[in-house]
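Submission sheet (multi-component)
Chains listed below:
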Amino acid sequence: MTTRTFPPLHEQMDVIRRGAAEILPEEDLVRKLEHSLQTGIPLRVKLGCDPSKPDLHLGHSVVLRKLRQFQDLGHQAILIVGDFTGMIGDPSGRNKTRPPLTLEETRENGRTYFEQASRILDPKHVVIQYNSDWLANMRFEDVIALAAKVTVAQMLERDDFEKRYRNREPISLHELLYPLAQAMDSVAVRSDIELGGTDQKFNLLIGREIQREYGQSPQVILTMPLIAGTDGTEKMSKALGNYIALDENPNDFYGKVLSIPDHLIVPWFSILTDAPPEHVERIHKDILAGKNPRDAKRELARTLVAAYHSTEAARAAEEHFDRLFREKLPPEEIETYIHSPESGEYLLDILLKTGLISSKNEGRSLIKQSAVSIDGERVHDPLMRVPDTPECVVKVGKRRFLRIRRADTNH
RNA sequence: GCAGAGGUACCGAAGUGGCCAACCGGGACAGACUGUAAAUCUGUUGGCUUUACGCCUUCGAAGGUUCGAAUCCUUCCCUCUGCACCA
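Outcome: structure written.
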């Protein structure tokens, strides 16, 4: 363990507090930071990741960004891949038990998780641990002893369990063990601080209790607010489809940000970007003063795309968006399908084959709704064939395009 | 184990022998409109085709009754509640 120097206490606290929902207990954090300042030993900051759903989105970025801040302050980031707990399935926020994964699947997912998280974290200074390393070796009596440390009433306090119980939805016994497993992770890595969304508060607190049982100084817990998804009401989650993935391509990323309701502009700005608080405040005032929120939203979209891709990509995405939706022109790059006239294919066949429609019925109904056009001409006939031109562009709905090129045309 | 309730399309939820490919709501998709992929209004939302009151597959699973079943019967699987049992 190398020793190092850290920024002064109040500076660290300022950074750590920014955007946090809760720090419990704050005095412990101060104490731990002071200790680290004196000894030069970094704090061990734990974040658990759930390998059952390895697609990270902006919701995850909130807590990852916080972890990054700890890294930048000189502390040790510890990422726990829940490969073992993935076999249990975390019930949070969902009313269906997850299908259990195999250990191999969770390992693989853990890898892609880390890849995506590296867009935010400093990947060189992360310790990655797989919790099967310690959980898989526990004996049944160890598990029972662990389970004895909490009561059923405590477990049922957890909002998700309580709700499901009240709604007479199934709760499997093994789900109750999840918080305990997560707590064992804290014991295993001797975490000083554990990060999580506010929905994790319960689990994080159990970690404190169990660490104490094992004679460790309990971790400080730091929760981050959950952000609303693109629909503006529900929290961002993959299950609800209101998310923006971290590896979303720049164009979709930009477009999805622009589609959020106006009231999310300020919260997203302040929690998802590095924009200084004064700047966010300025934007907030401008909007209240009647400035068109579109401009702020465009800036937000550019900022986010720039953070996850590049400034260049952000500009290109904005141009692409304007081209498509303001000027209603086809995009510059369109997938091309080579068509041989003698094949006798109907337009619908081609659209189905290229995935622009998922069934011919869908295609027919889209044609009926005048959602299909060729080179700007509306298609009305479901038995339409490809026009006898070297090349044409088919548009389905607002966003689906296909260039069809005749096979004999040289290019 | 006993008793009661229940399992319907992406989700929620109607439907208890034919008019059911299945009301309605959400979501999704589309058209109009718009600063926007927002809001609003309208439409579509199992598949196939010769687009038709046509054909095929679907209402936990498998069988059966019937001219005809999501709807009735049998067996099985699963969930919830209560009781019983219980280290």
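Remark: Confidence is low (pLDDT under 50) at residues 90-98 of chain A.
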